[in-house]
Amino acid sequence: MRADQLDFHSLVEFAPDRGAIEFSGRRAILLHTDAMGALRKELVETLGADIAKVILTRYGFSSGHEDAGLLPGFMHPDTVEEFVRGGPRVHMFSGIAEVETHSVEVDRERGHYRMSGFWRHSYEAEQHLRLFGQSDEAVCWTLAGYASGFASYVFQTDMICVEHACEGRGDDHCAWTLMNAADCAPEFSGLRKYFQPLNIKDRINVLEGKVYERTRELEASEQRYRNLIEDLPEMVFALHVSGRMLQLNKAGRTRLGISPEQLPRMRLKDLVLPAHRGAAANFLKSIATARTATRLDVVMRDAAGCPVPMRLQVEPVLKGDRIVGYSGLAIDITAQQERERKLTEYAARLENREQQIQDIINDAVYILDLDGRFSFVNARMAELLGVPADRAIGRSCGELMLHSSAQRVERDFRRRLNGEGGPPFEIMLAASGAPNRLLEVSSAVLSTAGGPEGVIGVARDITARREMERQLAQANRLSSLGQFASGIAHEINNPLGLVSGFAEELQALMESIPGARSNPDFDVLRQGLTTIQEQAHRCKAITDNLLLFSRKQAVPIEVVDVGMLVRERLSAYRDIGLTRGLAVDLSLDAALPRIATNPTLLDQMLRNLIKNAGEAMNGAGRVSVILRPAEGGVDLEVLDEGSGLPAGVIDHVFDPFFTTKAPGRGTGLGLSICYGIMTELGGRIECGNRPEGGAWFRIHLPADAAGADTSLP
User: Fold this and answer.
1) DSSP states of 69-96
2) What share of residues in the chain are helix, strand, coil (percent, to 5)?
3) How many CB atoms lie within 10 A of CB 638?
4) Which of 142, 136, 117 minimizes the C-alpha distance to 194?
5) pTM of the predicted model, to two decimals?
6) Are 562 and 634 in contact (CB under 8 A)?
7) pLDDT per residue as tens digits for the range 388-414
8) Are 575 and 614 in contact, with CB atoms under 8 Å apart?
9) What is the three-class DSSP state of 515?
10) Distance CA 392, CA 248 (A)
11) DSSP symbol at 313
12) Nearest CA among 35, 34, 96, 37 for reference residue 64
């Protein structure tokens, strides 16, 4: 009989009147999988996962071994292969899992056996996920043990089932391989211990020994803790849940003049002056309600009878969810109250200093003391320095600023204290993780009662202003050059048309002369006329670029899916051969906002950047195109693996007529046109060199204002 002919009804016999069920000729019981889950939970929590795995694997091994001994009487297998396939069939009948066998290898001469397949809907994986959540390793222990025991009986040699994937650790299904134990790779050699008998008694004895040792350690630790608390200089106490004193260390007893014999009769409220007893009694009630540490300021009387201000810091002691007592500290706050009084007086003196700060400007403000260290920074200055305000106090400029900026501030500091004047100066600050900021600093001597206390400075962020000035200058240059270029282009286009037309007419006339094709002199003329037309077309392309560069017209804007647009354009570039020889990788973020742009201009700019990247790599290499969300829109990057931009070139790549290409290979207008396009589209373009080699160009495309907070589905 084949394994697939074996059916459930031939293996099971129900005798409900006798309270019996027989399965494969052996008495069986119906058992909920939740009950097996409860057993697993008890074993794991009592003996640990490793021992539980051994027990359940051995249980599965024994079940499989016995089923294999009984199955031939029902199945009468034709071959060993069919016999071993009967094990998965019985597993399915038992409701253990859905089993799918992929391959069975039987080599009796060499004693080599191998079998593999899938388990689906494993009850073990289901129970483990329900009880413990997702595991880091395979959890179908009884299934693996069953397969090992069944196969070991069939093949009469030690077999081990290895589970490679498991639903219990998040895989789609369980995948397993059954193999000779001797063939297990080194990484599976540790599985052998799960198929060996386990001496539970010895394990329990070991655990009991460890518990005894741990108990002794805890007792010793508790004694050390008590000794430590007793010798602490601070007042430490412990209270019963009723508020009765259980412990007060030596420092507390000495300070308050209380003997150990008096403690059991005292409560927390008995330690404070009568005016604070009501607050102390309510204090414990508030802790019991909040179930967290709480503070209370009270006044106690010391051994000499003098009042002492104290701060009680008390927290509940919990056993499970029940409060069983309280532990706390009593801290003398006499010195703290004195400091607070002095701080109040000092705050009054600061009013004059704060007024001087407000008289200068309400910007980023700092004060350097006479040692050149920060004695005050406001919130804006702390933000620019990249540290909390309290961490800046007492530190020098060199510790928080770039070296050149620190030198500039220190030089101004010395000049001011020497009574010298000077105009505002500029510094650069670079807080960690933040972009560099350009600041304009004005300073003056800070004085109180006629004497200098330091130097006060006000730093105004002029980064945006300088960027606007730079952009305005660039725009003015582009506008002037655009007007000039437009005039030249129009003046040149007419002569170029005549040159090209006459060359074409002469070429047609020459072809009509009899014998022209066989006359070698006409070949020279023909080649010359062809060259004239090619160069005229080249000049026409240059003038077209000049006109494009100089144009000033309204640009129609529409909302587009930038990911789809870029993907389509790259496909089109491949079709027309623009990316021939290049490997173009496109990386799209899953959540790109829609952008407001002009698709035609964006296509022109992307085409230019791809073309430049290919030329930078001599027509062969990898170009990466990356689209990712950015603040206010989307960043589109084009990266190449060429030689990168030479030193001193990056600041000029967008200038008109600037090019690093050989004469005759470029006009220097391509990137200037890209810059103009981004200006018209309300975005920006940047460039730089990659650390691993090659250049990068990044264009920022603004998001659609109506849907800037929404992403594409």
Assistant:
1) HHTHHHH--SSHHHHHHHHHHHHHHTTS
2) 50, 25, 25
3) 22
4) 142
5) 0.34
6) yes
7) 888 889 999 989 888 889 999 999 999
8) no
9) coil
10) 42
11) E
12) 96
